[in-house]
Amino acid sequence: xxxxxxxxxxxxxxxxxxxxxxxxxxxxxxxxxxxxxxxxxxxxxxxxxxxxxxxxxxxxxxxxxxxxxxxxxxxxxxxxxxxxxxxxxxxxxxxxxxxxxxxxxxxxxxxxxxxxxxxxxxxxxxxxxxxxxxxxxxxxxxxxx
Length: 145
Hints:
Layout: E1 6-9, E2 12-15, E3 21-29, E4 35-36, E5 38-39, E6 42-43, E7 50-63, E8 70-79, E9 88-96, E10 106-118, E11 122-126, E12 132-144
Antiparallel strand pairs: 1-2, 3-12, 4-11, 5-6, 7-10, 7-12, 8-9, 8-11
């Protein structure tokens, strides 16, 4: 008997069928404004009758030149309105670069998560300031609610 095909990350697996798919969402920011993450070039909203389970997040932070850089209160939330800071927090973090040219110019952090985002919601993010560049990739599974 053949093993079923699964999708997921780490210990969290789903049997792959026509209603279950893995999705990566991406976003960039160097602004204190919130912006929605996208999939295949379009703003991602969890479809009606589905849920999106966030399983893994990679945050890449780059500072602007040799200037001091800090990612003040990076937020990642989900909410029924696109590009808003209100809503249910997925993760909030503070990352600080050291000052001077010997400090790193890029920091990469990975987080394994399990957060269910309901139908109709967007996932948004923001950087804490304009001297820090931020790239976020979320990996998860979209399946029936």
